[in-house]
Amino acid sequence: MLKWFEQINLFYLFLVLLAVHLMLYISLGTDSWFITSVLAAGVETIAVGILRVVIRKRQKT
Questions:
Q1: Which of 47, 20, 22 shows the shortest CA–CA distance to 36?
Q2: 30: which residues sit within 8 A by CB, 6+ positions away?
Q3: Domain of life here (predicted)?
């Protein structure tokens, strides 16, 4: 699982998460589905990026 965090391209991860969130929020009938999807995908992508940094620092020590 840790190797997955190192190898994944964050841009492609963002696109996949955006597509999933778009389907979710459209099906739920959220009024501001686009901006909500972009923000949710962005937050999750940033979280994975932070995890990558933490994992790399842990492996160096």
A1: 22
A2: 36
A3: Bacteria
